[in-house]
From TrEMBL:
InterPro entries: Acyl-CoA_Oxase/DH_mid-dom_sf, AcylCo_DH-like_C, AcylCo_DH/oxidase_C, AcylCoA_DH/ox_N, AcylCoA_DH/ox_N_sf, AcylCoA_DH/oxidase_NM_dom_sf. Residues 246-374 form the Acyl-CoA dehydrogenase/oxidase C-terminal domain. It comes from Streptomyces griseoruber. This is Acyl-CoA dehydrogenase. Its cofactor is FAD.
Amino acid sequence: MDFTFSEEQQAAAEAARGVFAGVAPDAVPSPALTQGRPVADDFDRALWGRLASADLLSLLLDEEYGGAGLDAVALCLVLREAGKVLARVPLLENTAAAAAVQAYGGPELKAELLARAGRGGAVLTVASHGRTGHDAAELAVTARRDGDGGARGQGGEGDWLLDGVQTAVPWAHDADYVLVPARTGDDRSVLAVVAREQEGVVLAEQISTTGERLGELRLESARIPARYVLTAEGAAEWLRQLLATGTCALALGLGDRVLGMTGDYASKREQFGHPIATFQAVAVQAADRYIDLRAMEVTLWQAAWRIASGAPGALPASGDVAVAKIWASEGVRRIVQTAQHLHGGFGADVDYPLHRYHAWAKHLELSLGPAAAHEEALGDLLAAHPLVG
């Protein structure tokens, strides 16, 4: 495999660096200072507009929908830059949901949503955490066909009815549509595009460790027209892999920025007349975290490449995604913990930007799930696909 980035992928990363250059993470209040309230009522709409103007919301969309037709690698390059500045926008969710609609939706749904999503006019998010955050998201919602809707005057024949609860839905109160995984009575997974104002949809406020507003999404016999439901086999798994890999990219960008902050601080902070960076104990800890960062990076690109190329391998792409999640969840935690330790008192100061990076790292770690669970999943894959030779 060749991990050299193409000119188009590098151009997307360069455009992202330009857009995110003016974002100041320390300008947003720390969650500890908002006393359980969200740090803001909405995501950063000005930044959202700049991303749309730079064509970074339509990276994965085909040209007919105003997109660049790029792949998961390009998306992860952009998300890495977003993670460095803790960008308060639904970039991952919007892009992943639009890509799923493009890959698995019907012509009518594509024409209705994709161009608007690429321009930033329609905001999409994904309910990916299920009811508890520990089980597959589709197990939290049931979907059943309703053939009587037209007769009752409440909808069309073949509409779907959704019931269930999805927790910790990012940007749910600000998005126009939520892509909801669900399970049918014959044990198939589907993805439903649910309008936020849809009858039968109830949103309750939740607050994340980052101080951002999440939503508990309750579906009470919410009637969804058939054209808004993606029933193709493999759609939910593909979306899950793309979201997980994108989250790893955010963790990589965050870790990269925190390690840089730690290096700058250690080179200026003096003890006993010398910068603490010259002390062996400090240098060894920083070196260990650098190794974590490089491992996070190489496993991320492996997973993104498998998703983008669809290349066959000894294991399904889910194996590469599991490895990337192991390193991202463990690595980002170790990086911020070492940064807090080496910053001393500044690491605990909620007015110092490192505190916000720590909160976001914890949120990403929780979103990815524990490394032990991914190791178990990887073990199951190895057992089911014994490596030959």
